[in-house]
Amino acid sequence: MRNKRLYQGLSAALLALSVGACKMPELATKAAGRPVPTTYATTTTDSTNTARTQWRQFFTDPNLVGLIDTALQRNQELNISLQEIQIARNEVQIRKGEYLPFVGLGVKAETARASKNTLQGATEEAIRIRPEHRNPDPLPNYQIGAFASWEVDIWHKLRNARKSAALRYLATVEGRNFTVTNLIGEIASSYYELLGLDNQLAIVRQNIELQTNALELVKLQKESARTTELAVQRFEAQLHTTRSLQYDIQQRITETENRLNFLAGRYPQPIARNSAAFNELLPAPVQAGVPAQLLQNRPDIRQAEKQLAAAKLDIQIARANFYPALRITGGAGFGAFKPGLLFTSPESMLYSLAGDLVAPLVNRNGIKAVYGNANAVQIQAAYHYERTILNAYVEVANQLASINNLQQSYNEKAWAVQALNQSSTISSSLFRSARADYTEVLFTQRDALESKFDLIETRMQQLNASVNVYRALGGGWKQ
Predict the structure, then answer these.
(1) Domain span at residue 402?
(2) What CA–CA distance (Å, rounded) separates 274 from 195?
(3) Tens-digit pLDDT profile for residues 354-375
């Protein structure tokens, strides 16, 4: 009867401990919203999407394709992301092993002499009258066997940790895909910039030749008293200014080539390109599809989605720390005080089996803090996911508008270049016949040069806008 009451009391205490451990603070969570507009402002509901086009089909310049191929193999940032994927994959294996039983083999050898003031030592003294029953002094101990420990995953804490690690592994894969998309876009933009700079340099050299000839003409006119030294100095100053511009462009070409080589993971070397074909380059046609496709095509959105799912599991993991944990340990093997008796069966056999159920009681504030942090990280991940979707939509909308506006701008600047070329020819002809002032020649030449530069700059912006739309839609990472 007394033992029954004792067991009832222990059961009640254990129940109270478990109930107390299960109490946890109530924290507000955030559910991430996924709604996006049905269309972009400048497009229809056509679901055709350029993001599904492989980059080899989107970019047709063989020199550019070769650069991208080299970068995908040798770019350091991309190779670093591959190692991050491997680290995340190993983390999954670590978490998987934690919820499986741990089994090991062990060998133990020790010797000890018990104090006479301990229970073992006093017992030895008490049986001194029968020395054949006494243990050796000091007492050796040899053991060999297997041991195991296992935390029973009652609340799925360990399984959720493995799932969370798996989601973060998938997030690193998406992060690498996003790196590929950005790398391809950056190489294409820099390549088109390089072609544009080459054409600007060619225009500058043409203008240097024209201005040199104009300077010689002005000098001849001065000798014949048809003009003054002021005109000579103005034409000479313009020539030096244009030559200075030539060196600035050459420096930009060098830096752009080096940037491309850096992205390709190699030391500076000449970049193969066909600059003469720049004027024939047209922006690749782009189909934006519908905004909802961004959720599947954009690697950064997919990465944020995986990180959000992992953060939700982390909350469940932190919540499980409030519950009792069941651990089972055991071992089996052989033990003796002499090596020769070690494998004597069954006298030398030993085994143990134990289980403990432990619930947190004292350190609950620390567990609450971990739980609160996990909840805060989940809310952060939800906002980050929403912001990533919003940013993707804005990027696509901006670049689509840019394509339309740049096309209109290019058409107007092309007309301006044509008109200024004619005015430059006319002003030079009038100046030779003394029917126009030299300042008109200077101004028209300067305006014609600037308009040609602007036209090339606009073409570069058009090509880059096409690349940026392709990148913003999530194209480039699918092989």
Answers:
(1) 18-95+156-323+366-472
(2) 8
(3) 888 888 777 778 888 888 999 9
